[in-house]
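Task card 7
Instruction: Convert sequence to structure tokens.
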Amino acid sequence: MGRHRSMGMNGRVIAAAIGVAGITALAAAWTTQAVPAGSESTAPAKPRPIVGQTSVPDPQLPAPTVSMDIAHASDMGAKGVNITIDDGPDPTWTPQVLDVLKENGVKATFCMVGTQAKAHPELVKAVVADGHRLCDHSVSHDTTMGTASRARQSQEILDAARMISEASGGVKPLYYRAPGGAFTPYSRQLAASHGMRPLGWNVDSKDFKQPGAAAMVATVKNEIAGGPTILFHDAGGDRSQTVAALRQVLPWLREQGYVFGFPVR
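Output:
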């Protein structure tokens, strides 16, 4: 009886061992099938594209003629700085901004609202005559463009481009900056298909809050190491603080070894 019991226990141990081996073999076989030959099981997964930032064009839309990636870099390289001026032109503040830029030998990019450009063509022409570049900032500065229909986005972007071009005497905007940064893949590709590179920013002076010229200058000094494209405004309210801040910050940037350029295209 004891011998029989011992043989039964040995049999169960052997069967268990065979079962474990069988499971291990099946797992190995499944792993071999799941990982294709030559692939690295330890390779990192592909990162998912960030929604709204993918640079893959939609084949159903017009092909881009410039990059549809949002530009931040300067065409002057690592020490380049891009001054960008939004929401104008304005008959009070744009001439003063132009004067400060001229005094400091700086060329900037003016992101113009279509209705403002249409209302003040002489200022658009003055911006162009001074060697600055034009940027489409939509017709009505609608910061909900990120959720607007494609028809609305198209109307805002293309009508503004037409208004700016007509006001300038035929000079087309080279960039498109979405109001409030509300880009969509569609708006970026639409702009790029019309030769306008989507334009972002790295340093927001927050001049629209009117924090004082000193605060604006401090913001630029503290944040410029993070990227070269600086955002100011020449319309939308009292911009005397902006003018004062530019008078201080432009010489400081040059003293730090920065050179002024335009956003990459």
